[in-house]
Amino acid sequence: MAYIVTSKYSDYLPLYRLEDIFARQGFEISRATQSVWSGDVADLVEPLYHLMADRVRASHVVATDDTIMPMQSKDNVANARMWVYVGDEAQPYNVFDFTMDRGRDGPKRFLKDYGQVLLADGYAGYNGVVVGNAITRAGCWAHMKRRSSMRRSLLPRCQGGGRAGACALCCRAAGQGCLHRRAPETTS
Q1: Burial call 81-98: b when 16+ CB within 10 Å, e when fewer
Q2: Which of 81, 135, 176, 187 has the fewest Cβ atoms within 10 angstroms?
Q3: Burial class (CB in 10 A: 0-12, 13-18, 19+), 56
Q4: Long-range contacts made by residues 94-99, C-beta under 8 angstroms, separation at least 24?
Q5: Three-state SS across 155-188?
Q6: CA–CA separation, 59 and 90 (whole Å)
Q7: What is the pLDDT of residue 164?
Q8: Are strands 77-86 and 94-99 parallel, antiparallel or unpaired?
Q9: Per-residue pLDDT at 17
């Protein structure tokens, strides 16, 4: 069972491929059986999951983000979500939580007893998680830098080849024109 769970969740091998691998070795272990066994392992390690989640919530800073997790049903594919909660250096655990949508109910439920710093992107759903409790929300620098870079790329160029917005900050704020002027080219 450990091989099946490791292959599926760490090596990203679908159960039908594992079924083929076992068949080449002379074992007949159907996908249905592997799926049941994976569920059994999940039941066995659930207390460990809860312990890790408690440790993450004991962190001074918890970082979180979500990603789309396509979930197949009989007729279509739904965009469910997988949330990761990362503890700080004293509690170095990554805990995942699955929800059917991107609503704030999932993070609110996971962080219900948390009262320190939540490091997250600009998703507005976190506002409902932090309002009315002791959580301090901190912004994600990577998202801030990406947005800042996008905005900067939209600004026109100044005379020196830099972005005009940068000139406004470093030159025009001092009451001067553009200090980034290129030196005149000389010919020899």
Answers
A1: bebebbbbeebebebebe
A2: 187
A3: buried
A4: 94/56, 95/49, 95/52, 95/53, 95/56, 98/69
A5: CCECCCCCEHHHHHHHCHHHCCCCCCCCCCCCCC
A6: 7
A7: 45
A8: antiparallel
A9: 96
Buried b (16+ CB within 10 A) or exposed e, 101-130: ebebebbeebbeebeebbbbeebebbeebb
**pLDDT tens, residue by residue, 171-180:** 333 344 444 4
Query: What pLDDT sits at residue 168?
Result: 41
Looking at the chain, list the stretches that DSSP marks H as alpha helix, in order from N- to C-terminal side. 2-9, 15-24, 31-57, 105-110, 125-130, 141-154, 164-170
Mean pLDDT, all residues of the chain: 81
* pTM of the predicted model as reported, rounded to 2 decimal places: 0.69
Give the full edge-to-edge strand order of the sheet including 61-72. Answer: 94-99, 77-86, 61-72, 117-120, 136-139
Cβ neighbours of residue 1 under 8 Å, at least 6 residues apart? Answer: 37, 38, 40, 41
DSSP-assigned letter for residue 89: T
Which residue type, as a one-letter code, is found at position 67?
Answer: T
**CB of 37 closer than 8 Å to CB of 76:** no
Single-letter amino acid, residue 117? V
